[in-house]
């Protein structure tokens, strides 16, 4: 009976494990092909990662059209820098960093951050994400209303789980500053969510 | 709101979200657009250098060919050795004075040369001037390019050297006629 159970468990788990292995192998192959300027392979990488990257861009910018532009530019930058990817980290992690740099670069370059904050406060519904419901939607809106410094730290550290060292490195700020910004973000979020009746 | 709940809720925001439009067409268009050719300025530099060396060699050949006996030409130290220019520098007044003086004498000096030598000198001056023009154009795009600045300085030096050689050449001709 135990053997039967073991066999059954093995039978069930094998296809999932094989699928995962296949997916990793496929991704590695597409990366190698894309590094040799194969745009079709890069399109496959785009299809595989676009939702993650767009999600990050949306959380970082809080604006749908800006997030689309950022995600698009992040993939263009990734294409240009693809030969620098050595496989030391996961491709998704590398792509994440490219996207964060793209978002920050665009914000610095365009100096539209102040306009964006105004636009978000005017049209916060544009940031609505279908999967966000109830409390999560309130939290998402509150995050969008945070000042950019606090928002970026909160998104990278609290949402995506980067350490303060990593967050500081990506944002070009000291680790201590990252911690201070997180504290500020938490305080502001607590105030905002309390005002809106968000229950603890 | 407790931090724990905030932390837990925040993690739930790390979701995959599909953009409302397909971003791939824009990406595809961008990545298939040829990159601007960065080697063009380098090509211009290399071409300018080749032209300079060629011009220098040609004028040296003319000078040596026309001289029946070796004439020791005392070339003063370059007046503008310490001058430079480009985004960070300006041409020194010594350079400008020396160049203006030689340029003013150029027509008189050329008139003393044989038609063949005169033609060669003029052609070489045009080559140097074209090189200066090309480098200046490259510098307009990359004003802080130290290599281009150095090349331009070299080109101006070459022009001044050429003008001096023309002066020396005609003086040698006069010396022979006097003799």
Task: Provide a compact summary of the structure.
By secondary structure, chain A is mainly alpha-helical. Chain A has helices at residues 2-35, 39-61, 64-81, 91-110, 113-122, 134-144, 148-159, 164-171, 175-195. The longest helix of chain B has 33 residues, at 146-178.
Protein topology:
The complex is a heterodimer of chains A (200) and B (179).
Chain A: H1 2-35, H2 39-61, H3 64-81, H4 91-110, H5 113-122, H6 134-144, H7 148-159, H8 164-171, H9 175-195
Helix pairs in contact in A: 1-2, 2-3, 2-4, 2-7, 3-4, 6-9, 7-8, 7-9, 8-9
Chain B: H1 3-11, H2 24-32, H3 39-66, H4 93-112, H5 115-141, H6 146-178
Helix pairs in contact in B: 3-5, 3-6, 4-6, 5-6
| CA distance, first residue to last residue of chain A | 48 Å
Query: Order of SSEs of chain A, N→C?
Result: HHHHHHHHH
Q: What is the helical fraction of chain A, as a range of percent?
A: over 70%
Principal-axis shape of chain B: elongated
The total number of structural domains of chain B is 1
Indicate the low-confidence ranges of chain B by residue numbers. 71-89, 175-179
Derived from helix and strand composition plus strand pairing, the structural class of chain B reads mainly alpha
CATH topology of the largest domain in chain A, what is it called? Rna Polymerase Sigma Factor, Chain: A
Largest sheet: number of strands, sense, barrel closure of chain A: none
The structural class of chain A is mainly alpha
User: Number of helical segments of chain B?
Assistant: 6
Oligomer state equals heterodimer
Termini separation of chain B (Å)?
A: 107 Å
